[in-house]
Design goal:
With 107 residues, the protein is mostly helical. It has one domain (24-106). 67% of the residues lie in helices and 0% in strands. It is built from six helices and no strands. It has helices spanning 8-15, 25-36, 38-56, 58-70, 86-98, 100-106. Helix 3 (38-56) packs across helix 4 and helix 3 (38-56) packs across helix 5. The longest helix is centred in the middle third of the chain and has 19 residues, at 38-56. The protein is elongated.
Length: 107
């Protein structure tokens, strides 16, 4: 029904070859965010790099956890960033914002 060779997608591609087709709502949201909000996308990339830097090495992770305990933070770890799930990005940004003082001291 929505096949790329003989379905709805093929009909749309005949009319406009530049059309982009995504198979689920999560991918659509991710695609739109990348194309329409470059500032937000850049911010997400920076946050993902910070989180991935901390999570990439066990020593970094342990040092951050110890700092959080000493600073009496409400949380003791960061959430991992994933590329597609939109809700995951919101949670990662929220947690990173809660940890902003600890991460600033760590970096």
């Amino acid at each position: 029904m929505t096949g790329q060779r003989s379905g709805l997608v093929a009909c749309f591609c005949e009319i406009n070859p530049k059309i982009s087709w995504k198979h689920c709502m999560i991918h659509k949201n991710s695609f739109v965010a990348k194309k329409n909000a470059p500032d937000l996308h850049e911010t997400l990339n920076i946050c993902a790099n910070v989180v991935n830097f901390i999570k990439s090495c066990a020593l970094n992770f342990l040092v951050l956890r110890k700092m959080c305990e000493e600073m009496e933070s409400t949380h003791a770890q960061l959430l991992l960033h994933t590329e597609v799930p939109w809700l995951s990005r919101r949670r990662v940004l929220s947690r990173l914002f809660e940890f902003k003082d600890e991460v600033k001291c760590f970096l």
